[in-house]
Amino acid sequence: MPEVKIREANQVIRQAEQLDYEDEWFELQPVEKKLVGYSLGLGIALLIVFIFIFEVF
């Protein structure tokens, strides 16, 4: 009998963990995608500009 209760408790814990994991990740909104793109683009552009300005290579 106690083993059954332990299994049920473990099953409930696994279900709760799965729900938490599903809530952890969500799709980015369009404005967030644009901000990520702009940030990456600006970072790469500045990297190239600084390489040419300071003649690193």
Task: Give a nutshell description of this structure.
The chain has 57 residues and is mainly α.
The biggest sheet amounts to: none
- The percent range for strand residues is under 5%
Helix proportion of residues, in percent?
over 70%
Shape: elongated
Spatial gap, N to C terminus? 73 Å
| Number of helical segments with 4 or more residues | 2
Number of domains: 1
What's the β-strand tally?
0
The assigned structural class equals: mainly alpha
Q: What is the overall pLDDT average?
A: 80
Q: Could you state the order of secondary-structure elements as H and E?
A: HH
Rg is 24 Å
Low confidence ranges: none
What does the model show?
By secondary structure, the protein is mainly alpha-helical. The protein has one domain (2-54). 84% of the residues lie in helices and 0% in strands. The protein contains 2 helices and no strands. The model has no long low-confidence stretch (mean pLDDT 80).
